Each structure stands twice: as C-alpha cells, then as structure tokens.
Amino acid sequence: MNQQTAMWRIMLPFFSFFFSAGQAQVPTSIYDFKVPAADGSIIDFSTFRGKKIMIVNTASKCGFTPQYEGLESLYTKYKDRLVIVAFPSNNFLFQEPGSNEKIAAFCKENYGVTFPVAAKVSVKGAKMAAIYRWLTQKRYNGYGDSKVKWNFQKYVVDEKGNLVAVFSPGTLPDSPEIIALLEK
After folding, report:
1. Which residues, at least 6 apart from 101, have a Cβ–Cβ distance to it below 8 Å?
2. For the stretch 141-178, what's the b/e string if a residue is b when 16 or more beta carbons lie within 10 angstroms of its beta carbon?
3. Are 169 and 66 in contact (CB under 8 A)?
4. 3-class secondary structure, 53
5. Where are the domains of the chain?
6. Catalytic residue among 35, 37, 39, 62, which?
7. Which CATH class is domain 27-182?
8. What is the pTM of this model?
9. Residue 94: which residues within 8 A CB-CB, separation 6 or more?
10. pLDDT, tens digit, 9 for 90 and up, residues 79-91
C-alpha cells in the first residue's frame, strides 16, 4: 500500500463523519420521532396521535422567552387536544447556552412549564435535528419549505400528523390565528 492510500484510509472516517453530520435518516411521519427530553427521558411522538402538536424552538435568554408563559397557558387550556413540545436551541446569538438540566429547571422554575421540553438541538445548518428537517422540508412534511427564522417559531401538526401551519417567532401563543387553528 502506498503512502497516499494509507493516508486516505486514516482520513476517510473523519471526512465521512464531517460530511454526514446532521444527515440522519428523516422519518416520513411525525409519529415516528422519538427524541431525548431535557430531563433524560424520551419524548415519543406516537403517543400524540389524535392531538394537535405545536413544536417550538426555544431559548432562555431571548426577547421572546416570556412566550413560555403563553405557551404554558395554551397547553393548560387545550391539554385535551394539544401537546406542545419545546426544542431548546442555541442557534441564534447563543441565547440558549445552558445544559439540558439547566434548561429544564429554568422552564419549570420561571414559567411553570409542564409540557414536554426536548434536549437541546440545532434547528438549522448542517447539524439540524432530523425533526427540524421534517418540519422545514416539503419533501418530508408535504406542506412546504420553511426556514427557522429565530427562537420561538411555531409549527403546528394536526390530529392526523400533517403539518398545517408555521407561525413566526413574533406570533404570540394566544394570537387569534393560533386560537382559531386550535379550535377547528
């Protein structure tokens, strides 16, 4: 074996990892996702069949962070037909620097959050979590392409597992558009 071949055999695993980061298999149904929770448990989306699901990327040091309060109120009011899942992310100006444990404690202590909080993920770029690939790419969600613009962007999935709406970060959880969608 020549020196160049030996070098490629050493470097290939590194390059394979580097170029495949964030390219994990994307399930075809929202109900196929099982994601780690901030508390170390597993959030199994198959248990949400028959309910609307609102997925929100969150951050604890953002101007939109007080939306946690509105999200908790929404979850409490519509608990029989809605589940909210927060996905903390540090993608925007490093506004979610904490560990999963600190994030979970922050949500509980400051906003009384009782809805599921996932482990911190990336919601954009090469390391984008598979669930965000599903949410943002029409080829997976059948609804449309989108980009996560900032913290607290909201994706709503209907009772049958179809993505039906995307709300900008500035849309408050108790906005008329969200309430109308939940009361359908």
Report:
1. 38, 39
2. bebeebebebbbbbbbbeeebebebbbebebbbeeeeb
3. no
4. strand
5. 27-182
6. 62
7. alpha beta
8. 0.86
9. 61
10. 999 999 999 999 9
